[in-house]
Amino acid sequence: MDNERIKTLEKENSLLKANESFYKALDKVSVSKHGKDYFDIIASMLSDLLGCDCVIIGQIINGYKIRAVVQTANSIKHDYVYSIKGTPSEKIIDTGECYFSDKIAQKFSDDPYIHDVGAKSYFGTALYNDEKEIIGVLSVLSKSEMSLSIEARNMVATIASRISAEIERRNIINEVKISRSKIKKANSLKNKLISILSHDLKNSFNNIVLLSDAMTMDLEADNYSDIKSQVKLISESALQSTDLLNNLLNWSISQMDGNEFVQENAHLEDICDAVFQSVESLAREKKITLSSEVSRELISFVDQKMIETVIRNLVVNAIKYTDENGKIIITAAEQKDYIQVSINDNGIGIDKETISAIFDIDTVISTPGTNNEQGTGLGLMLCSDFVEMHNGKIWVESEPGVGSSFKFTVPSKNNS
After folding, report:
1. Long-range CB contacts for residues 277-282, cutoff 8 Å, separation at least 24
2. pLDDT one-digit tens code per residue, 127-165
3. Distances in Å between the alpha carbon of 4 and those of 15, 291, 313, 315?
4. If you placed Cys at 122, which of 75, 104, 127, 244 could pair as Cys (CB 3.0 to 4.6 Å)?
5. Strand bridging mode 327-335 / 299-302
6. Which of 398, 272, 402, 221 is nearest to 326 (CA)?
7. Is 156 helix (H, G, I), strand (E, B) or coil?
8. Angle formed by the axes of helices 378-389 and 150-195, to 10°?
9. Predicted TM-score (pTM) above 0.85
10. Exposed/middle/buried for residue 52 (C-beta within 10 Å: 0-12, 13-18, 19+)
């Protein structure tokens, strides 16, 4: 037997032993035992098995963006998010096929990891879920040339299937957590609505009935001195009830399956003008000045009815907590791919403790306005839901005695 044949047999025997050792080690790696470290251990095993310099376990999170565990000789990065445009991973996702190259630096010179590692060789494979959809990519990089045998590729395929199963398991756990959170929120909303219907709305209508009876008795007794004040109080109760019913209706519609959510390009200036027209009488009663500094150039990509409801509720809220002769100003500014809208007032302000719970459905916050106006907190809950449906954020900045600024973001103009 010649020396070349002996070397070949020795290499095959060594690989068989490595295979046996690998599969025994893989069987010992249990998710329940290693938990969050599972991907770290798998990456380390793969690095030892193939003698590579970098292992990337990436899960697709949005189009061509991946969240990855990245192991190199010196470190491990977790939850590292990066774009795979112009990388071997993009090729794997597009084709669904494994990809191997021993001249990777020349083919993908813009890939940051290929550049940083100084990789010459690359091997990658897609990660699939049970529906045969690609959910990620497993990549290995080496500074030297990798010669991957069929057995080695089979090992990588086995590891890839284990990784896919673990990603799916974690996704299911996350979905269960989200479902539980939604159920908890729905129960809290149900309790909130029952409270509103049984207390706030009932009280408003009771006030109207009582005032109407008193006015009828005064008219029958030819006593006209209190009629004007009684009519004003009836009007205020009716407006409060109407506002509450509108918010209840809008929220109920938003929670229905099949609810139409129609985004279109819209001038924010027009939406603000419409809001000011609808609340003009409320502001006039307290001699509050309403002004908008929203540029005609700002175009948002929104459901107009929803965002008009958001701005209206925030302006009404500002009127409620602003003293007579106060000012309310709406401003807006474009920032990258979204617009930040601010409703600013010089009212009584909000303390830090209230701010921390102001959008929390489990916390009932009902503070009378400067003219003892009553509220339920439903308007702010509705604002939060509607902004969230636009993938935006809503928050408040305030200082007691100085004023408040309610801010939210919405997508900017859609050019497609």
Report:
1. 278/312, 279/312, 279/315, 279/316, 279/319, 282/239, 282/316, 282/319
2. 999 889 999 999 999 888 877 777 778 778 888 888 898
3. 17, 88, 83, 85
4. 104
5. unpaired
6. 402
7. helix
8. 150
9. no
10. buried
